[in-house]
Specification:
Shape: elongated
Radius of gyration: 15 Å
Structural class: mainly alpha
Length: 133
């Protein structure tokens, strides 16, 4: 399987985990009381899934220990701040425009797609650079 295919599948998987986690929080706490908690929970869940898959299957990265892996995860997360801004911009923009949970999720999927594309290049250049050289 090509690297592009793997990355696309993993991005879709992490997106599904993110949206499912958000929806679980919304169903548990109620739609209007749970906007920020659901988005934060979904973002965290998607981040953990995507980090593991990218590290292992996209960049074939092996940390030299827990400290090295922790630093790599922090750098991975830092690179994700820009892409999270894109993702949240679409999600909250769609929520504001359409005032609908379903359309908010559509915005999230669009934002995640754009964000993951940007994130690949940031991660390749700054997070896992030694693994792909």
């Amino acid at each position: 399987m090509s690297l592009v295919s793997k990355y696309l599948i993993f991005a879709l998987l992490a997106t599904a985990v993110n949206i499912a986690c958000q929806d679980l929080v919304v169903r548990t706490a109620g739609e209007h009381a749970s906007l920020w908690p659901s988005v934060l929970a979904g973002t965290a869940a998607g981040l953990l899934v995507k980090y593991y898959l990218d590290k292992k299957y996209i960049f074939a990265f092996e940390a030299d220990g827990v400290l090295h892996d922790s630093r790599t995860f922090l750098l991975y997360t830092a690179m994700g701040l820009l892409t999270t801004a894109v993702f949240w911009g679409f999600e909250f923009g769609f929520d504001w425009l359409f005032d609908s949970k379903e359309m908010r999720y559509v915005g999230a999927v669009i934002g995640l797609g754009i964000g993951y594309l940007l994130k690949y290049f940031l991660d390749r250049r700054f997070v896992f650079a030694t693994a792909v050289d």
